[in-house]
Amino acid sequence: MAVTLKFGDKVTVADVRKLHDMEDVVFDREWFEETEDRNQDAYYMFRDLAKSNSDHETIEANHLRYDITVIPPEMLGSEYIKTVGHYHPRVPGTDISYPEIYQVLQGSATYLLQKVKNGEEDLVLDVVVIKAKKGDLVLVPPGYGHVTINASGETLEMANWVCRDFSSVYEPIKRLSGASYFLLKDGFVKNPLYKNTPAIRHLKPLDHDELGLGSTESMYELINKIEKLRFLTAPQDFTAFLTGVL
User: Fold this and answer.
1) Which of 32, 35, 36, 229 is most open to solvent, judged by the fewest CB atoms within 10 Å of its CB?
2) Partner residues linked to 12 by β-bridges
3) Helix (H) or strand (E) holding 32
4) pLDDT tier at 215 (50, 70, 90 boundaries)?
5) pLDDT at 157
6) Of 102, 103, 124, 100, which Cα lies nearest the Cα of 181?
7) Contact present, 180 and 197 (Cβ < 8 Å)
């Protein structure tokens, strides 16, 4: 049965991540091997949303995409449920990768961001964790891969703005069986497949005024001042802002 979301005047069918899609990144291998129904839903992604046709035309013309992801409060054995995790490719003609910005709409999220050495994806240079609640903004700057974890007892619903002109890169995190840390009930544990993993830096969410938003305002409203999102499509022009985020 299809899972749908009504957003504005449109109904969108979810792109569903199944448990079998998580096979490469699950910490609790024993639990996974004993699970018979690997076709069960893990989480839901609603891509390329807009409240109206005119909004979508504006979003598309600015090479952006607005998505919503819904992650139920489940456990992957001893590990809290999470997204698969991915990196972003570089902007053509530059050495800067695309950023992304998230906002928690319901529930709470734990965002794990990691930076690895160029050409050595198992050598970790930095790990940041940002805990976010409803309304909070989290910016993933260039150079960082990221995983979102729902370590709460309620459904997490989050939105993101991102450039629509690229595809996310999942292979490095899958090849290393997940991100550099796993979040279990007892806390974070290191993934032994990474080398020289530093301690986690815990940071706060982004201030709303960095994007010209009110403290309780939805970031979808940036559709009305779309130039505020140009850092997502041309990060090379916003290096001072983006390097100061973390």
Assistant:
1) 36
2) 5
3) helix 29-34
4) confident
5) 98
6) 124
7) yes
Phi-psi bin for 212: left (phi > 0), alpha (psi -120 to 50), beta?
Answer: left
- Phi then psi for residue 31, to 5 deg, are -60, -45
Q: Return the residue matching tokens 């002109």.
A: 165
Q: How confident is the model at residue 2 (pLDDT cuts 50, 70, 90)?
A: confident
User: Bridge partners of 13?
Assistant: 4
Q: Where are the alpha helices (DSSP H) in 113-211?
A: 171-175
Please give the C-alpha separations between residue 60 and each of 1, 146, 164, in angstroms, as whole numbers: 30, 25, 8
CA 154 and chain centroid, separation: 18
* pLDDT per position as a tens digit, 170-193: 999 999 999 999 999 999 999 999
The arithmetic mean of pLDDT across residues 57-71, rounded, is 98
Evaluate whether 183 touches 149 at the Cβ level (below 8 Å). Answer: yes
- The identity of residue 202, as a single letter, is H
Cβ-Cβ contacts under 8 Å for 58 (sequence gap 6 or more)? 223, 226
Cβ(47)–Cβ(7) under 8 Å?
Answer: no
Query: Which tokens belong to 144?
Result: 């960082």
pLDDT tens for each residue of 92-145: 999 999 999 999 999 999 999 999 999 999 999 999 999 999 999 999 999 999
Q: What's the rounded Cα separation, in Å, for the pair 84 and 24?
A: 9
Secondary structure of residue 80 in the 3-state scheme: strand
